[in-house]
Amino acid sequence: MEETTPTAPDAPAPELTTRKPGIIRRIIDFPLVLIVIASVIIITIVTGLSVVFTQVLGWVTGPGSLLGGFLIAVAMVLFWKGYKRWLEREPDREMAFAGAAKELGAGLACGFLLFSVMTGIVALLGGFEVLGVRNPVDTAIWYVGGLAFISGTFEEVLFRGVLFRQIERLGGSWTALLVTSVIFGAAHIQNPDASWFAAIAIMVEAGILLGAAYMLTRRLWLAIGIHAAWNFTQGWLYSIPVSGGDAPIGLLITRRVGPDWLTGGDFGLEASVVAMVCATCAGLTLLTLAIRREELRGAWYWRKGQ
């Protein structure tokens, strides 16, 4: 008689050993819930640290303002690491350090070159003049640098890291690009000297550009670099208002002349037709590259049956 190995009668079938997530976990995993939770945490962190650095420690100008911006950027990176581990329960790909320097450097170069090209075109059209050069010591380099740290990390983690990714889970890449672009533009409508045209310009030029930068790499470093360099180049190098703020004391002594459609008016060059055309073309180029890499994604949350 052939000898056989007995099988335990109570051994569960392999497919029954996988336990479904509980109701609380499934609620947390729903994209809109993750958006609310992450947004509240992000805004609380940035607001709290800003109050501490400016109101308590007095880091409003000088090296302290740069240090405060840098520490807020670090806090955003640490938040993302914790968010991915404990809320999404997935490995951190979006802000992994491997390859970060290369992508961040590419973004910084892209942001600087793009804004310089736009400024050069406006100058050729007679809307921008350089009157002189300041001593770097006498400029607002610390303050503008701190703002660049904050805007590059805080806004990209919130808009691309959280909003874009979760909306993409629900409605796919095109929906995510459209919705986040609209929200990004609307978020600037309350800025000083903002107009509906300025908000639309931000929505089209920056929404597409930064969304496409994320889609191309599926990481945040490229978008962070573009965003930070754009703001720093605009404010410190060319002394142009950044999204409606006061014109910083930058390296170049400049003057904007001509109609608002050309110069962007008091909101800054971001509200210029030139900026809208140039930045949108750059964004569409990145978007085309992302499509060629087959980075367009459809909605997958519903297909999972969750």
UniProtKB/TrEMBL annotation:
Keyword match Amino-acid biosynthesis: no
Transmembrane regions: 30-53, 65-83, 104-128, 140-159, 171-189, 195-216, 273-291
GO biological process, one term: proteolysis
Pfam families registered for this protein in UniProt: Rce1-like
A GO molecular-function descriptor: endopeptidase activity
Keyword Membrane listed: yes
Record-annotated CAAX prenyl protease 2/Lysostaphin resistance protein A-like domain positions: 140-232
Record keywords: Hydrolase, Membrane, Protease, Transmembrane, Transmembrane helix
Domain of life: Bacteria
Name used for this protein in its record: CAAX amino protease
Species whose genome carries this gene: Croceicoccus mobilis
Taxonomic lineage from the root: Bacteria, Pseudomonadati, Pseudomonadota, Alphaproteobacteria, Sphingomonadales
